[in-house]
Amino acid sequence: xxxxxATLAAGAVVCAGQTRAVxxxxxxxxxxxxxxxxxxINQMLAGGKRAWTDDQIHTMELLRDAAxxxxxxxxxxxxxxxxxxxxxxxxxxxxxxxxxxxxxMRALGAEVTLExxxxxxxxxxxxxxxxxxxxxxxxGTTQKVVLTALGGSTATPPEGLTAEVVVVDNxxxxxxxxxxxxxxxILLFNHPFDKELAAxxxxxxxxxxxxxxxxxxxxxxxxxxxxAVLVRSVGGADFRLPHTGLTEYxxxxxxxxxxxxxxxxxxxxxxxxxxxxxxxxxxxxxQTLPDAQSYNVIADWKGTEHPEQVVVVSGHLDSWDLGTGxxxxxxxxxxxxxxxxxxxxxxxxxxxxxxxxxxxxxEEGSQGAAxxxxxxxxxxxxxxxxxxxxxxxxxxxxIYYAGKAELGRWxxxxxxxxxxxxxxxxxxxxxxxxxxxxxxxxxxxxFAPVQDSRFYxxxxxxxxxxxxxxxxxxxxxxxxxxAVLVYALADSGEAAMR
Length: 498
Hints:
Layout: H1 5-10, H2 19-23, H3 37-49, H4 54-69, H5 72-84, H6 92-107, E1 111-123, E2 127-133, E3 143-144, E4 147-149, E5 161-168, H7 171-176, E6 186-189, H8 195-199, H9 203-223, E7 228-232, E8 258-261, H10 263-275, E9 279-284, E10 287-301, E11 306-316, H11 326-346, E12 352-359, H12 367-376, E13 383-388, E14 396-402, H13 406-410, H14 412-418, E15 425-428, H15 437-441, E16 446-451, H16 456-459, H17 472-491
Parallel strand pairs: 5-6, 6-7, 7-8, 11-12, 11-13, 13-16, 14-15
Antiparallel strand pairs: 1-10, 2-3, 2-9, 4-8, 5-9, 10-12, 14-16
Helix pairs in contact: 4-11, 4-14, 4-17, 5-11, 11-17
């Protein structure tokens, strides 16, 4: 965590969230006596200043302020979403986005490479469901259920299937069912998204507790003989809006159709199934086509002294197909692109190469990231840092870092620059992004903006992930974090410690 320059100047009390940073500077001195508060403050201020000169700090401030005034990321994101649209890997729109981002980066003077990646090509089809039998049913009627197929799902027969619905809230309830209770039936996992947890800023944790049912539910259901699996949508918006996302199947095991139902319909099914038998007619007609060739877009802003040393700044270019992928993750791509745009505008050429990457197919298995690691494994020693933005575009409060604990102290001057935008916190994390996880595992220091996640999962993976959800100021704040951080890593007198 960081202590900002403003806090130090005011002599404010260090808050609990900054305890780790203070403790790192509280050890006894060489003579064994305890340092004074002034000694500790001086130690903390000196920790990172050795990496950047006053001129470099001033350049960071220029990047921050220019990002806040710019229209670039906002306009690029609008084009990716409103003009190009959904960018499911293997789709024509995904290829259009590749060509567009590559062209925009070339126009700025970056050296652009399209790096091949073989990606899934799954196509959504018809998706409908209706109750055909339920307690209290009016004779001759059916009741619609709102759902959407999960990514990678197999299809029902073209005419659909009809089966009784069994509802459980969690794994424990599933294991407590009598033998054969699920065989030949549709299994629904009704695990609620923890909106109270998300409201405290822990949206990722709330998502994590629910997404396991989306990922592994079809495996568990198939093992027990279910004919299909439904999961309650993993998101916080109760507007009868289903959330899609990738599901998994076990090798050699049966594959059964899988879909996400809205929170409202999941609750309705639980109530009705508690009163008596409920039967559903379900039709899903997705197709899994042969893998397609696609590309990561790689744009290098070459370093002046160590062009072989690389700092990655990135987001993923693909999106799900229900919306237009504004917050997931067109925003991450746009603010990464802006890092080069700002450097060109201000005439900045760091010591090391700044590498913008628009990753392909993060949503369907991170095949683009895997292709990059395969192609560049021998160069990992020259990757001195990696940044990914993939948690939307709401207000950032700081920087996540994965690597040695000393990274937090080393980055304090950078955090102090960003504190002017309310983004001065530094938080240690085990990982910082799906696409850069391979680099993190290889010892490359990795980073991500700490973003407000209270509302992200209201729209994530839904038809409501559209450009109108973007707040221009918040987007620019994220662009400022990315530009300042990538410049700091690329121009420091010493590389980030590994």
